[in-house]
Design a protein that fits this description.
Length: 337
């Protein structure tokens, strides 16, 4: 029996399906996020509402929501409700949209020969198990960085390696969060920025391979800054002052030594916005760009700190991924002659 959800939340529960009701609801919510039907900050029905409309136990929906919250797809706000999270997990899920499109095409073909959704799901699972039995497991890769300013680096690395990359927050690992530590210790390769390489190496197992990728200021940004007069004052503004210090170090490492850099956190700027008028230029992280532009009377002086990945580091990373995957393939062939 198929139980429809209300039209404002298009989910169905099939009691005859070969997967559990919990898994059906979880996967359908993830699908809605992946295809854009649910977007960050969108509200979900309350536990009571969804349980009533689907005709399932209240505890089932509560367990589904708790799982999705713990996995980073949803966020609960006390007194307000449950919402789609604005998180790395959600961004990762959106990258699966092409996979869902392929599954849709496969199901359309299956309906022509009369397969039901349940039969298609069972057949797809059986095929996946059969194919996977003779293939080496995909490499488990994690990327570790601080929460602030990590998204762009993460996307750049994932674009380069073209493999699934799980994002872990360094703050969670330092706090010894069990789930984050479990994911880290299960990884085939741990990737981080050179800046945090030592910290991550100390947390990882001694035999784990940790690779650092250096980021460097974008050439256009360096050209802009280099054209400014000697001892010009440039404000470097990030969410936190420590990140602005990191920005300063990267610029100086790139060879910019004639500029007077002044790192600031966003809170310091909020307390003294007049400081913007004293600077020759302002270099900001993407997270604070819009806020800073509200205060700056000369928008042309505001530069965004864009960056690129170190080509040598990326080449080393790709080579190691290929070598480890090849080694896994040999082990798989030996185990299944």
């Amino acid at each position: 029996m198929v139980i429809p959800a209300p039209v404002w939340f298009p989910i169905i529960v099939d009691t005859s399906a070969p997967i559990t009701i919990n898994a059906q609801i979880v996967e359908q919510i993830k699908l809605l996020i992946a295809i854009g039907e649910l977007q960050p900050s969108n509200a979900l029905p309350t536990v009571t509402q969804l349980a009533k409309h689907l005709g399932v136990n209240h505890n089932t929906i509560a367990a589904v929501y708790n799982y999705l919250i713990e996995s980073g797809y949803l966020i609960a706000q006390r007194g307000k409700g449950t919402f789609v999270a604005n998180s790395q997990a959600v961004e990762n899920l959106v990258t699966y949209k092409q996979l869902y499109n392929l599954l849709g095409q496969a199901f359309n073909a299956a309906t022509i020969i009369g397969l039901s959704p349940s039969e298609f799901g069972g057949a797809a699972y059986a095929q996946a198990v059969m194919v996977n039995r003779h293939q080496p497991a995909a490499l488990k890769l994690v990327f570790v960085e601080c929460l602030q300013h990590s998204a762009d680096v993460y996307k750049a690395i994932q674009t380069e390696i073209k493999k699934h990359l799980l994002f872990l927050e360094l703050e969670d690992l330092k706090a010894k969060q069990p789930k984050a530590l479990k994911e880290l210790l299960a990884a085939d390769i741990v990737i981080t920025t050179v800046q945090h390489l030592w910290e991550v190496t100390q947390i990882a197992e001694s035999e784990q391979e940790v690779i650092g990728v250096d980021i460097k200021p974008d050439l256009q940004l360096l050209t802009q800054i280099s054209s400014l007069p000697r001892n010009a004052l440039i404000l470097l503004i990030c969410q936190e002052e420590s990140r602005s210090e990191d920005m300063k170090n990267m610029l100086q490492k790139a060879g910019v030594s004639h500029i007077n850099f002044q790192p600031l956190g966003l809170q310091q700027l909020q307390q003294n916005p007049q400081v913007l008028e004293q600077a020759e230029a302002v270099c900001v992280s993407k997270e604070v760009e819009d806020y800073v532009r509200q205060y700056s009377s000369l928008l042309s002086r505001v530069m965004v700190f864009n960056f690129s990945l170190n080509e040598t580091n990326v080449s080393v990373l790709k080579a190691r991924l290929s070598a480890i995957q090849l080694a896994k393939s040999h082990l798989s062939i030996a185990a299944h002659p």
